[in-house]
Amino acid sequence: MRDIAILVFDGFEPLDVFGPAEVFGCIRRIHDTADAPEIRYYSLNGGTVHGAIGTDIVTKALDDAPDKDVLLIPGGPGTRSLVKDAVFLEALRRQLPRFSRILTVCTGSALLAATGTIDGRKATSNKRAFTWVKSVRPEVEWVAHARWVEDGNLTSSSGVSAGTDMALSVVAKAYGDEFARILAAAIEYVWNDDPSDDPFAAL
User: Fold this and answer.
1) 91 exposure class (CB count in 10 Å sphere: 0-12, 13-18, 19+)
2) Which residue in 20, 1, 2, 25 sits closest to 168, CA to CA?
3) CA dist., res. 25 & res. 78, Å (int)
4) What is the pLDDT of residues 80-114, one digit of tens each?
5) Any idea what the Cα angle at residue 12 is, between residues 158 and 100, rounded to 5°?
6) How far is CA 44 from CA 29, 60, 87, 193, in A?
7) Can you name the residues that pair with 49 across neighbouring β-strands?
């Protein structure tokens, strides 16, 4: 499995980041495998990033991320301004082709969509923010009822904790369902392994 590059920004949602990070980081702890991914944290220019609820994290510049890594884009209140930040969006747009796979959590899909690179592709997002997300880029085929959605090398998940379910699905594809269930048990997490089971869509 490729290494994981997590892109953070001021106002990122901590669980969007650290739920999947816990899943991917536990792979080596469960089984010492040569292809267990390393997890690295990036921002556009590097330095300390201030997440929501007082979560600060030290990052490297996104330019430093190795080619072919998996890019994870979280959501959070910071996405509301970034979807209008032409400088940020252009810089991200230029970087995207370097990554082998893209994962989004919550309103991270709105941020990705705002780059104009996933028009016509299927994606989902946080259901409480779904109307706003759709307004950011109507050209995306937004899926209103899904815990997570796969479309080629893009996998997007619904709100916050859905990122952990999505991350376990990525692990299952790479290492098998049994391994993913062992990992979920190790972190005492009840895995919703059905991407169509979206109880929050009704909200």
Assistant:
1) middle
2) 20
3) 25
4) 999 999 999 999 999 999 999 999 999 999 999 99
5) 65
6) 30, 8, 10, 32
7) 57
Q: How many whole angstroms separate alpha carbon 22 and alpha carbon 25?
A: 5
Tell me the pLDDT tens digit for each residue of 21-51. 999 999 998 887 778 999 999 999 999 999 9
Enter the pTM of the model: 0.97
- Place domain 4-202 in its CATH homologous superfamily: Class I glutamine amidotransferase (GATase) domain (3.40.50.880)
Number of Cβ within a 10 Å radius of residue 75: 30
Instruction: Estimate the crossing angle of helix 162-175 against helix 14-30, to 10 degrees.
Output: 30
DSSP category for residue 199: G
